[in-house]
Amino acid sequence: MKTTYGLRLDVIETCRAMNARGVNTGKAGNVSVRVNEGYLITPSGLAYDAMVPAHICQMNMNGESAGPLAPSSEWRFHHDIFAVRADVQAIVHTHSTNAAALSTHGRGIPAFHYMVAVAGGRDIACAPYATFGSQALSDGAVKALRERKACLLAHHGVIATGASLHEALDLACEVEQLATMYLAALRIGEPPVLSNVEMDRVLDKFKTYGQQPEVEVAL
Ligand SMILES: [Zn+2]
Question: Is residue 176 annotated as part of the catalytic site, yes or no?
Answer without folding.
Answer: no
